[in-house]
Amino acid sequence: MISITHLIGDDINDKVEVYATTIETKDNVVTAGGEVVVVYQDYHLSAKRAIYDRNSGELELFGNIRASQGENIKLLGEYAKLNIAQKERTFKPFYMLEKTSDVWLSGANSYAKDIEVEVESGVMSGCDPNNPLWKIEFTSSEYNTDTMWLNLYNARIYLYDIPVFYTPYFGYSLDTTRRTGVLPPMVGFSDKEGFYYEQALYIAEQNWWDLELKPQIRTNRGSGLYSTFRFVDSKVSKGSLTAGYFKEKQEYFDESDLANKKHYGFNFLYDNGDVINQWFGTSFKGQSGLYMDIVNMNDVDYINLSTNDTTQNVTTTQLLSRINLFYNTDNNYFGTYFKHYKNLTLDSNEKTLQNLPALHYHKYLETLLDEHFLYSLDVQSNNYYRSLGKSATQTDINIPLTLQTSLFDEHLNVSYKSYINAQHTSFKGNEEIPTTNEYSDGFFARNYHSLTASTQLTRAFDEVTHVVDFGVEYQLGGSDMEDGYYDEQKDYCSIKENKTQPICEFYNITDIEESLQLYFSHYLYDISGKQIIYHRVAQGISYEDIGGGAGELENELDYQITDNLNFYNNMFYNYDESSFSKNFNKIMYVSSSFDIGLSHMYKNSFIPDSGNILQHTSYLTSSISYKYDKHYSYTYKHDYDLERSEKKGFEVGFLYQKRCWDFGLRYVENNRPILNLSGVSDSIYDRYIYIIVRLKPIMSPQGKGTGFSYRLPDKSETN
Predict the structure, then answer these.
(1) I need a surface site. Which of 256, 365, 536, 690 has the fewest CB within 10 A?
(2) Is the pTM higher than 0.85?
(3) Domain limits of the chain?
């Protein structure tokens, strides 16, 4: 093998090395034959023959060209021309494989200068080049080897040889770096809402923020825009702002009897794990934090319209906005909380009681007398406010005192607890409708006691370890002191039927019953420490003259039957009614290929049926997922209200996965809430067919990919 080296300019790194079986030089033109290898910077090229002109700096390669740039880019061609001095490169024909993303690009010819590569009349895909399942044909393209961003123009997407989509432009990054670009579209059709199209745009110009814009159109219903701005403003803080707007067409608005023609709202989230030191430049050793979740919307359809897959939405008729700020040390905790409620079923929110703010101080548990005496302190003041109606400031103080010891060689633990509680309420504002009710400022104090005895026994066997925990707690009321509001309203507000009256709204004092609480629990662990069985039984007994006797019996069981099979039960038995007030059962089987979950919730309030308030709740949920092999997987979900004989949700589907593409089909039924013109919450039963297509790697396997949905005609417009 013969070699020749030529230096271009004055830079020692800017040189061309040619290795070949035969090399001939004439008038500064080098002709190499046989097995030719050319090395230039991070380029390695091989060919059958090469001609290099030292004067012009042009290198021509002929026959079976193999080229690599760095570790990830591989190039193929029959003819290549490289102008070393001008940093220009031409390939005919052109084939490039980007190994990081496993995407290949082929074209009639290519021209490159510096980091920019232009390809004419080509094809790209992530599948087997011999018979690709999908491909994108284009008239021209641009690729930046530095940013790894690929632009395709006049792109036609084919599944096998069937054209399915055209776009004048398609941009895609061949690495995983966040970049600005167009995201896969979502399309669908409904006989009522018409054709649905959502085209998301992702903007990420800097590494600390990104913006996602999702304009959508529903041809028969209207159009709107939803957006999410995400940011990371420090190492310990991040946030996001989601906002949206949708306007109904007049005809759809009239036919559907909706409450609002325009739907809009926003949600701001922010989390900071060291807010005091970061914002105020302090160096406190304690932990501080700020959490904000502020949400507002004019009705629930703002959520329904945020996506075409209504099963992904969590809807509610009451909104809660929160701001929590705290500072925490080993001994003390300081916090302030703001809570704002909005009921979407009400025309005005002025009567809704808000908590703006709550102030909280907690003194952590301290010990004395060789840890036989324990005490702590908790103080919380809540400012309950509304613009129309009575408001109040209510402050609670709680001081638990504990004496504890162990007996019989630590087999029995006993303790005595004395609880000191106090509450003060001061009122402000006027009642909505003037009455003769007295809202005098008041003070309440209480002291009550409890005695506890418990034991815990552990025994290890060859294969398992058994832990038994048994305890009894006797609670005894002490003394109360009432003044003002608490003394005046005690007799009236203590009656259960009067709890909902306006005068009792701030009366939250409950009697301390003389009672006995028995509990028993045991655990079974295998030799690796994994829990096999957790079982707990609890029984309360009241010694009051009125309403006394045995309370509800609670039984809880969590049984890991096998490594794959688990059963959970939680039930409450009411002796007075000789029936269960709650019984929840759930069984799950989880394996590498098969998951199944079945649960049933039963509740009985023991209140006679009245209007829309049901005495019983009986709800069944089930889900099955089955992975047949590495290609096929199936899912099934079914939620059913047994008491109402009403299907709440249903889904069945499958997903076919290959190395370079996924195809899925889902049939979905969903009961979603709406707000009608009269301001009453209603619901619509939707039925959809969803088609999911992911062209990998240009569509992430973790993402939803491009989807098409077809909404079937409603079986009934409203339920």
Answers:
(1) 365
(2) no
(3) 1-84
